[in-house]
Amino acid sequence: QVQLVESGGGLVQPGGSLRLSCAASGGIFSIYVMAWYRQAPGKQRDLVATITSGGSRNYADSVKGRFTISSDNAKNTVYLQMGSLKPEDTAVYYCNAQNERNSIISWGRGTQVTVSS
After folding, report:
1. Running DSSP on this structure, what letter comes out for residue 89?
2. Is 77 exposed, middle or buried (0-12, 13-18, 19+ CB in 10 A)?
3. Which of 10, 20, 29, 115 is most buried by a 10 A CB count?
4. Which ranges of the chain have pLDDT less than 70?
């Protein structure tokens, strides 16, 4: 069973940067896609970025050019480098793992990102 633990959230000023980490353990051989989602208060959980085991990446239009998803296979960790942060990026950020059938096999508990002056 895959376990995911996010870290790296916090308070940052508009225009600032932050790097989130998602460490995976247990059953990682079954992971084909890792994804970052975010959920702002009162809103639905939205996809932010994905990365496949082959390194293909996709981003939501709202974060293209500002966020970068990457992975370190040796550490079983996926990162989300966030730059030029805006107040509207404020949300709880979650990572999930998907198998090759694009079924979600695990969610992390989330990490809070607050962009405010």
Report:
1. G
2. middle
3. 20
4. none
